[in-house]
Write a structure and sequence with these properties.
mainly alpha
């Protein structure tokens, strides 16, 4: 065999009918190229897969941002839902303050529960029409047919509801502190942390079940029935964390805070995994 040649094989059919291998000279370049092609293309394929994954994440973030901007623009144009929610929550807090006429000790004891009940009522009123506008205008099908992921639609709605709830709480918490003679000095940032974690869990769960009940005829009645049992652990953790901050010696209860964070992570992950089924017909 000459230099630069390898050994290749083929089958030779004999008169007996058996196939026997037969060696012949094969150029060495063929062997080198055959072994080199996978080594050259595998890293390139991995880089292309990473770029595609990065583009998919960017597309999801951009789509969620577009839906968020649409929700904010529609709400701030009319201010119907936000105004009604804030007024309703204020009425609840004011009525509770006149009904109980609490002392300072009673305010620290019962105030956090009344505050989160007001948040729950406001959230039920605000989260119910999350998908009602798309359902009434039959634009939800157009969103499903758009070249975006279903989670982007859900994430845009969750972020919009979170902003609306945060604005309502921004008005409600100072009024609550004045009516119930509670001081926010020294606990503002810790209270904001508790409110953010509790409100995020409330909006994620409420938006998910708003998508589930969007096709029902009695969705105004169905959403609270689905939402309240699941929100009970979240409300208990939020009330306990807020009570610890309003105590005579304010402290941040890390156990209940970790529970709030775990609740948020679990339900956000579940909404990401089940988003295709949640927005299906």
């Amino acid at each position: 065999m000459r230099r630069g040649e390898g050994r290749c094989s083929q089958f030779d059919v004999r008169a007996s009918g058996r196939r026997e291998p037969q060696d012949f000279a094969c150029p060495k370049q063929i062997i080198v190229i055959a072994n080199a092609v996978p080594r050259l293309f595998i890293p390139a394929a991995l880089w292309r897969a990473r770029d595609a994954e990065r583009d998919l994440l960017l597309t999801t973030a951009q789509a969620a941002g577009i839906i968020l901007a649409k929700e904010l623009r529609l709400e701030f144009r009319t201010r119907e839902l936000l105004t009604a929610t804030v007024i309703f929550a204020l009425v609840v807090v004011v009525l509770f303050s006149f009904a109980f006429d609490p002392t300072a000790a009673e305010s620290r004891r019962y105030g956090p529960g009344l505050l989160w009940i007001a948040f729950l009522f406001a959230g039920s009123l605000m989260l119910n029409p999350s998908f009602a506008r798309e359902q009434n205008n039959e634009t939800l099908d157009a969103l499903r047919m758009a070249p975006i992921s279903s989670f982007a639609i859900l994430l845009g709605k969750i972020l919009a509801n979170f902003i609306f709830m945060s604005l309502a709480e921004l008005v409600l918490v100072p009024v609550f502190a004045v009516l119930y003679n509670l001081s926010l000095a020294g606990i503002v940032w810790r209270l904001i942390l508790v409110l953010v974690l509790g409100t995020w869990g409330l909006t994620v769960t409420g938006t998910v079940f708003s998508a589930v009940s969007a096709h029902a005829r009695m969705r105004e009645l169905l959403l609270p029935l689905l939402l309240l049992p699941l929100l009970t652990p979240l409300l208990i953790a939020a009330v306990e964390s807020t009570s610890a901050l309003f105590a005579e010696q304010p402290a941040l209860d890390r156990t209940w805070l970790a529970f709030l964070a775990g609740f948020d992570i679990v339900f956000l992950t579940a909404s990401w995994l089940l988003c295709d089924h949640l927005l299906a017909e």
